[in-house]
Amino acid sequence: MSETALPFNEKIIPPSWRDRTVDIEEFKRLREESLKNIEEFWAKIAEELPWFKKWDKVLDASNPPFYKWFVGAETNMSYLCLDWQLQQGRKNKVALIWEGEPVNEKGEPTEVRKLTYYDLWRETNRIAYMLKNKLGVRKGEIITFYCPMIPELAAFLLATARIGAAHSVVFSGFSSQALAERIKDAESRIVVTADGMYRRGKILRLKDVVDEAVKQCPTVEKVIVIRRVGLDDINVVKGRDLFFDELMEDVPKNVYVEPERMKSDDMLFILYTSGTTGKPKGIVHDIGGYAVGLYATMKWIFDVRDDDIFFNTADIGWITGHSYNLYGPLLTGLTFIWYEGAPDYPAPDRWWSIIERYGVTIFYTSPTAIRMFMRYGEDWIKKHDLSTLRIAHTVGEPINPEAWRWYFKNLCNEDCAASSTWWMTETGIIMISHTPGLKLIPLKPGTNAMPIPGVDADVVNEKGEPCPPGVKGYLVIRTPWPGMLLTIYKDPERYIKTYWSKFPILLYYSGDFAVKDQDGYIWVLGRADEVLKVAGHRIGTAEIESALVQHPAVAEAAVVGKPDPVKGEVPVAFVVLRQGYNPSPDLVKELKVWVRKSIGPVAEPAEIYFVTKLPKTRSGKIMRRLIKAVLLAQPLGDVSTLEDEASVEEVKRAYEEFKKLLEGQ
Ligand code: 6R9
Predict the structure, then answer these.
(1) What atom of ligand 1 comes closest to residue 430's alpha carbon?
(2) How far apart are CA 581 and CA 525, in angstroms?
(3) Phi, psi dihedral angles at 311 (to 5 degrees)
C-alpha cells in the first residue's frame, strides 16, 4: 500500500453507535492512563480470571528481553477454557458448532456436530486420561499436530494443556518436508493426525504426508490417527501407529483428570513461523499472560456478549486459529464455529450460508478472502441474510481501502464495527485495533486504528525516535505485554537478535513499516524485511530460496514479493541455473512443483525467471531490493554497494523478455 493514497481524513460512524460516545481524545486519555503503570493495569484485568495461586510479581523485567508475566502464579489453560466456564453456568451452552465439508446440492452441510461446554470438557478429560495413562505423556513434552479442523482436535489441544504438555500445530497445507523439519526441532515423541480431510470435493491424505515426514524423525514413537474420512487403504506401521477410536474404547465416559498446576510462564505451545532465514522459528507462548491478553482483547475488540455466535475463518495452523478460534472464544464462554472445506466450494457462498444458518454476530476473516469475494460479485451475498452481524474484523495483511469499503457495504450493511486488527504470531494477541467493547473512535477505511490500552506501540525512525504524522517508519512496541512470546524455541540468541536489536534503545521490532496519521491512527503498510504475506500466510523468501537451491538444476535463487490484486502479494523467483541446464517452460513447471512439495502450495512462486547473474553487494549478499524495483518499475535507489551493475540489466532483460512473451500470446 502506498501511504500517500490512504484516506487519513475519512471518518465513519456506524448508525448503531449513535447512543454511545465516539471520541478520539477520550480513548487516548484512557490509553495514556493505562501506560502510566502497565503492571497495575494488566493486574487489574488478571483479577477477573480465577488462579490456582495468585502471582508474587506482575512482571519480571529483571532480565530483558526475557520478560515473565504473573510470576509465581499457577493456572491451567484447559481449566480456564472449560472448568471455569462450567462453574459460570455454561454447562449446556454450545461451545463448538462444527460443519464438515461434504455439502449437498442445496449447499447444506451433510454433517454437523454441536459440542456443549460439558461435551468438550468430558472429551478433553478422556483424551487427557488416555495421553497420560496410555502413552505416558509428561509435563513439558511437545506433541505435534497435523490435523484438519475437526472437534477432536480442539479436545486434543485442550487435553494437552490440561496435563501440562505443550503443542506444536503444523498447518495441514504444509508439505511432509516442512512437517519433518518442525517435528525434528520440537523433538516430538507423539504426532497426532487424521487419515484425511475434505477440501473442494477431494480427499487430502494427511496420514501419507505424516508417514513421509516421520521417516526423517527418529524421536517419533507414536502416531495417533483420527479417522475423519474412513480411508481403508492407509499404511499402518505396527507398534507405532494407533487409531484414536481404538485408544479411547476402554477409557471411561466420565473420567476426571485434575488439571496440572502450571506456572504462569510455563509453555502452552510453540508455533513455527517464518522469518528472514531459511529456518522457521518456534515461537514459544506462555499460559498466564496469554490467557489474560486474550481475555481482554476478546472483550475490547470483539465486544463479546453471552449470546454471540463467533465465526473466525482462520485455520488452527496459524496464530489467528490458536488465539481467536480456540482459546479466546473459550475463555470468554462463547459459541464459535469451525468448518471444514473452502470458502468458495461448492459455491462462493459457503461462508454466507454459515452466517445465515447460525445467526453469526461476530465475523473475523482475511483481506485476501474479501478481495476474492469482490471478484465473485455481490449476488452471492444477497442470497443470504447477514443482518445478524455486529462485528466484522480482518487480520493477516493490510486491507486496501477499496476492499474495506466493499465489505463494509456488502457484508456489514454499513453498520458494523469493522477493524483491521494488527498483530503477529509473536505478539500472541491483537495489539492495534478498534475496541468497540471498550471505547469508540470513528472507523477509517483500511486503518488499524490505535494501539489498545496497555500496549505502547508506535512508529519510529532508525534511531527509535517517534516519527511525526505522515512519515513512514518502523512499527515497534516499547514495553512488554501479556501474551508476548517468551523466546524462540531452543534459540534465545535469535530471539534477541530478531526482535530486540534493531534500534540503539531496547524496542520490540515488528518487521513492519507503518505510518501514523494526524489523529494518531496507525496504518501498517507491509513488511520491511524479507518476509512475505501471501494470501495472509506468512512465508520467508529465504525459505523458498533454500528450497529452490536444493533442486539439482539451480545454482542460485532470489525470491521477492510482487503485489497481487487478490493475494496481496505473491512470490516471484529469479533463478541462476547450473551448467548443463537450460531455461525452458518445463523447467519452470518443475521448479514450481518442487517448491510446492518442499514447503507447500502457499510458497509456490507465481513466476520464475532465469537469469545468468543476480545483483549482489560486494560482500556477496543478494540485493532483493533492486530486483523488486525492476519488477515494480520503480527507481533503483542507492546502488553504491552493488558489485556488478550489469546484473541489474540482466534482471531487467529476463523480466522484459517474459512480458513480451505474454503480450505476444
Ligand atoms: C496475526 C498474523 C504477522 C504479520 C505482521 C504484518 C501482517 C497482520 C495485519 C497485518 C496489516 C493487519 N499483518 N495483521 N498487516 N494489517 N491487520 O497475521 O500473524 O502470520 O505472524 O503475521 O502479518 O506484516 O507483521 P503472522
Answers:
(1) 1
(2) 40
(3) -130, 105
Which sign, positive or negative, has the C-alpha torsion 220, 224, 229, 231? Answer: positive
- Given a cut of 90, whether residue 427 has pLDDT beyond it is yes
Q: Whose CA is nearest to atom 11 of ligand 1?
A: 398
Domains and CATH numbers, the chain: 530-663 (3.30.300.30)
Alpha carbon of 11 to ligand 1 centroid (Å): 24
Residue 346: asked if its preceding bond is cis (omega within 30°), the reply is yes
Contacts of 418 (CB under 8 A, 6+ apart): 391, 392, 393, 394, 404, 407, 408, 412, 443
Ligand 1 centroid – CA 425 distance (Å): 8
Centroid of ligand 1 to alpha carbon of 411 (angstroms): 22
Q: What is the pLDDT of residue 662?
A: 65
- Residue 162: in which H helix or E strand, if any? helix 151-162
pTM of the model: 0.95
pLDDT of amino acid 664: 65
pLDDT in tens, 594-604: 999 999 999 99
What mean pLDDT value characterizes the chain? 96
- Residue 249: HSE in the Cβ half-sphere, 13 Å Cα cutoff: 5
pLDDT > 90: percent of the chain? 89
The strand ranges marked E within 217-339 are: 222-226, 241-243, 262-263, 269-273, 281-285, 309-312, 335-339
Cα separations in angstroms, 305 against 19, 45, 310, 312? 18, 17, 10, 16
* End-to-end CA separation in angstroms for the chain: 30
CA distance 549 to 559: 11
**Amino acid letter, 401:** P
**pLDDT of the residue at 657:** 81
Each residue of 175-196: pLDDT tens digit? Answer: 999 999 999 999 999 999 999 9
